[in-house]
Structure prediction request, 436 residues.
Amino acid sequence: MGSAARVVAVRTATTVVPLPQPLRLGAMTVERREYVGVRVVAETDDGRTVAGESYALTREAPMAELVDRLVAPHVVGREVVASDGVAARQSVGAAWDAALRGSAIVGRVGLVRRAIGLVDVALWDLAGRLAGRPVWSLLDDGPHLAGSAEPGVGGDDRDVPARAVAGSPRDVSSGAAVAAPRPAILVAAYPTPGRTARDVADEVLAHARAGWPLLKISRSPDRLLMRDLLAILRAELPHVTGRPTVAGRSGVVVDVGFGWRDADEALADLDAWGATGAAGESAPALAWLEDPLLPEDAAGAARVRDASGLPLSVGDEVTDPEVFARLDALGALDVPRVDVVAIGGITAADPLVRAWAARGKVVSSHVYPEVSVHLGGAAGIGVETFDRSPAGNPYDPAPLLVRSGPVFDGGHATPPDAPGLGFTLDPDRFDLEATP
Prediction:
């Protein structure tokens, strides 16, 4: 079986799923979820066809058109070599670099970065299928880039020793890599209109009884509801889980979704919730407070961190690595969160995750668990998911759009052993057969 193939097509398709009720996310109201699917098709010298896939929320942006017009022309015709993880990293990284530089006049960050990320994820899936290995296994082949914000750009070949990051355990007798469970976080409940604090708390507690140690809720603009909700969870959650809150690993996360304008508004809300000051008997302990302000407001985030005493996590939809650097420099990044598509794909995300993990930071992901479960080596990243029951959930229908993927059990996610990313897009949702 050959280990190289040349890209012949990049295909896109979009699907829309209405939500059963509107969701309030920060200043936004979401009534539907729109997703774009991408398939990268390649051919080997012996005539075989190999394909890789990816998907992402569009956030109502024209993502398919951006992929088609700004990224695909720089990827079609390129060779993907997957004889081992180093070769895969070099060849996929070269495609990443070509797409970044080819669209630099209008891109680098923002929507174009997301479009590059979509294609990059599909290229990694293709590389894994070509090699007959799961992507997590390819990524564990060292050496690794030292968390460069732009992997492969400017001829930066600086490496860190493989021992500096967490790798997957290996079978001593065979030397084969074995998939290791990663810690997982469940998006447990949204305080939607008409629901009481007790209603939301009961939904969270039910998931805790099912074995989820780390659970996320979204912020409601109703201060009284949030105060009551956090008071219930502070009183009841430890008895349900049998464990205290551990920052980044267990307890409750509150996702603000960039909902506060500035640090003054954030601190006023937190004080009204009874959540400011050192965690203890008088304040509900949070595993972390997520995305309190716009990510670019690093100074404001640092002020919230210092005044509230709460661990902060930032990263959802961040497309610019420099945002992370500014937050980190000001001490406002207790738990980095990486959106694998938004930050530019696996090529950009994996070095970041490994660099953070090497510094002892707890790292979390934003959605797309089928992809993020492969990042960063064993326990390198906390994998976020919504409820994945066959009936779906009222918040995010993404689990219904994919087939296979990681196995979730006991608050952990185990990456698949199948070649590539180990999932496929539902063909009833994404028509990726024809070239647009």
Remarks:
- The first strand starts at residue 4 and ends at 25.
- Residues 151-175, 278-284 have pLDDT under 50 and may be disordered.
